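Task: complex structure prediction.
Instruction: return structure tokens for all chains below.
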Amino acid sequence: MTPGAEVLASVADPLLQQRFGSTWWRATGAAAALVLVMLASVAWLLLQGIGIWGVNTSVVWGFAIANYVWWIGIGNAGTLISSLLLLTRQGWRASINRFAEAMTLFAAAIAGLFPVLHLGRPWLFYWLAPYPNSMQLWPQWRSALVWDFWAILGYLMFSLMFWYIGLLPDLATLRDRARNRWAQLAYGALALGWNGSARGWLLLESVYKAMAALAVPLVFSVHSVVGMDFAASLMPGWQSTLFPPYFVVGAMFSGFAMVAVLAALLRWGLALQALITPAHFDAIAKFLLFGSIVLGLSYATEWFMAWYGGEPAERDMVRYMFGGDYGALYWLMLACNVVAPQLFWWRAARRSLVVVCVVAVLINLGMWLERILIVWNTLSHGFLPGTWRVFTPTLWDWLLLAGSLGLFALLYLLFCRLLPVVSMHEVARQRHEQAAGA
Amino acid sequence: MSHLLLAEFADPDTLLTAARRARDARMAGLDAYVPFHVEGLPEALGLRPPALREAMLLSGLATAVLAFAVQWFSAVQDYPLNLGSRPLGSWQAFVIPCFEIGVLAAGFAGLAGLLRGAGLPRPHQPLFAVPGFERASQDRFFLAVDDPAVGRQRLQEALDGLAPLSLHEVG
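Output:
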């Protein structure tokens, strides 16, 4: 069997021929149930307003904005991983880029929901766009909210195009391999008539690489904008030039952790052992180790600058982070983000799927705590002691978070049922080039 | 495409040799249909690299300039809003949406150029009726010659020794 045929047999044929087992149906059912929970909590929110959440007059951002930052962080990684590894010619990328990009799309779309729902009157979010209106108003261009609007919108649409262009030849493969009339029609319509002409490949290659080169600064800018939402304020703990790069590294870190978890699940669920190998987990684990060191350095810089800057409110903020109302969570966050990944200094740990997955889940928990604490600590402990208040999430806060996880899972399960999770044309090409080089 | 000849091969290296021979024999209208991008194939076929990236750059820059103009016009001319005496034309704040929109526009231009250049969308094409052509997206490599001066005989002679798996005439 040629390398290309082997890839087709392991990626395309399960989609087209096999029935997906009961595990897939059970997982999809559970995810759909969570989506219903999300719909119910959003409906209640629209009826009652954001008072159903734990937000109060001090901690005005609460869960929603922290969850937004967490999701957009995960959403940043897929396109970054894919484009950065393409530009640096990392061949092993071919096995992971497709599902990492899908992760990006779903996570970024979910992230975009949170600030909209947090608006109070979510149905008016389109006021952020400049359009001719009877009130003769324009958006406030100097507001960070407008930056967010363009950054998320631009990033989401750009990632969708990048993903689709890479997917186009694989859709044509599915169209040609399908035996079922409906599958032929559906994949045929999505493939737009791609015929694999050398001219087409030349164009695709040219556009795809150019888009990868644009995607890298775009990703950096998107998460920097998210960081600037905080840094452009005057609050202790937020007003720092460290924030944009610190947010970008955090995004890459949590995104790679999510990719590791998804890779392990897909490898097990779709039997892709030949395509997603321990070498991939090894490479991801090295990125995670690097990310944890940079993040540790960022935390240390925060503490140092608070002391060195000499501003009492900043110094008090660091004391509050370690020993205040949320101190235990801060220590847990440090353990997850900085201590746990140190296991990856050992090669055996990097190559063990169990260790990589457990640490990756811990990192995702740690990164969620980090986002939560950035919002809670500063808003709970601002300049004016009279405004100090603690945030306590309500049931509706938790339900919306759980629902967003369910929506992500549902979209992802549908993605692996309907589309090839591994880029077949890129793996076939990589195998061919390896064989030619050997 | 009144006279398209298709020669089928089992591997990309033979296709590359075939493409070079066809080009050396001065055949016109060369193309290939392959399941993945084969390094060196465009050069072997004599395809010119597209000017897509220039178009992407230009549309990105033009859109960024337009975005800046809209922001400046609305914030300074049409709807000046004094917020704590900050300057109305705060270009530092304006460049961020310009960058995001510019990159998005470059992406759109790339996608549009790809679709236009590859003649998509075109869900059905006469090529798809060729027996075995469905494997062009899987594991077979086709050389296409669209040259009225080249007949089946001449192509067969040019490909002597390369043993194409099949030779089809389309149209």
